[in-house]
Amino acid sequence: MINLVLYRKYRPQKFSEVVGQEHVIKTLTSALKSGKVAHAYLFAGPRGTGKTTVARILAKAVNCLDDSSYEPCNKCESCLDIMDGRAMDLIEIDAASNRGIEEIRELRERVRFTPTRGKYKVFVIDEAHQLTKDAFSALLKTLEEPPAHVIFILATTEPYKMLPTILSRVQRFDFRKFSLNDIVKRLEMIAGKEGIKVNEKALRIIALNSEGHMRDAESMFGQVIAFCGDKEIGVEDIENILGIVDINLAIKFIDLLAQKKSAEALTFIDKFVNQGYDLVQFVESLITYSRILLLVRVSRDLSKLVKEELSAEQLNTALKQAEQFSIQELSKTMEIFIEALYRMKHSSFPQVEAELATVEICERHYSGVV
Ligand SMILES: [Zn+2]
């Protein structure tokens, strides 16, 4: 599968290669430097933020045969075993499919055995919140008195579903969603290594559309590279290949609404559909952009909340556009788009829904009803 190629190829293999989770890495590496490794960790955070990646690096680091650094050497037999997925001392369990008491009992059996090669047996339980109650209590017993050679890493996207008794026995790390800049930086690094020319603007479009999920961003970028081959990649390539709607289109469309040009707005939609763009994505970008307008209309100071989402030039345009609407008009516009989006997803006539919303917004404007 194309879409996982880049993700696997450039999966960070050292702490220093992990971007965007500095707070986690700093605490973990200083514990490693001082030899104070905990026996149970909770890695909490949204999907695709690098929880299992960091868990594997940690497993390598504690078992690395070369102890000249806190980083794994990625060359010794122990590191290579883990990287090749054949290590006996790293046990990864997906709690989404192995959530019962039997699996945890089996796990408790395995906990008793000492590591085969390294110092520690590392158990990574992914989606740990999905374990059944019985499985949790069985696990708890092990967490209460973990053998010295065992490290547990519980990874979860939903930490609030974890039992308090479990939470009190783990050292918790919260993984955050990646910022736009983290993603752009990483894609730039990949582009550099792949020898591909692509400008930052194009990468920002991918980053924006990945909504903070690095894996999604990498897979989108992989798709683009696969289509473009080795040529230069520009903004248009990305929009065409991924069917991504550039925020500039939303800006143009809102301009038409501000000027009450309903006929032109309807033509815009029609053209848009004929060019093969996804109308749902377009309405989503209209909602995103109307939110920006609403925020800066309420107060220009709020532009700091959205400066990652827009270029300086786009932000300037947004500030000017926002002045053309009242706060009520903007909130009503957003509401209409949100309702339209919901209906579009359930309707056999999505284009009609978008057109109705457009007319409604323009007509409100005409009659002064807000
Ligand atoms: Zn090593």
Offer a few descriptive terms.
single chain, 370 residues, alpha/beta, Rossmann fold, Helicase, Ruva Protein, domain 3, Zinc Finger, Delta Prime, domain 3, 3 domains, 7% strand, elongated, binds zinc ion
Describe the structure.
There is one protein chain. The chain has 370 residues and is of the alpha/beta class. It folds into three domains: 21-174, Rossmann fold, CATH 3.40.50; 180-242, Helicase, Ruva Protein, domain 3; 247-367, Zinc Finger, Delta Prime, domain 3 (Up-down Bundle), CATH 1.20.272. Helix content is 58%, strand content 7%. It is built from 18 helices and five strands. The two termini are 50 Å apart. The model is unreliable at 366-370 (pLDDT under 50). Zinc ion binds at residues 64-66, 72-73, 75-76, 78-79.
SSE topology:
Blueprint: H1 2-9, H2 22-33, E1 40-44, H3 51-63, H4 77-83, E2 90-94, H5 101-112, E3 121-126, H6 133-144, E4 150-156, H7 164-167, E5 171-174, H8 180-194, H9 200-210, H10 214-228, H11 235-242, H12 247-258, H13 262-274, H14 279-298, H15 303-306, H16 312-322, H17 327-346, H18 350-367
Parallel strand pairs: 1-4, 1-5, 2-3, 3-4
Helix pairs in contact: 1-10, 3-4, 5-6, 8-9, 9-10, 9-11, 10-11, 12-14, 12-16, 13-18, 14-16, 14-17, 17-18
The structure holds zinc ion.
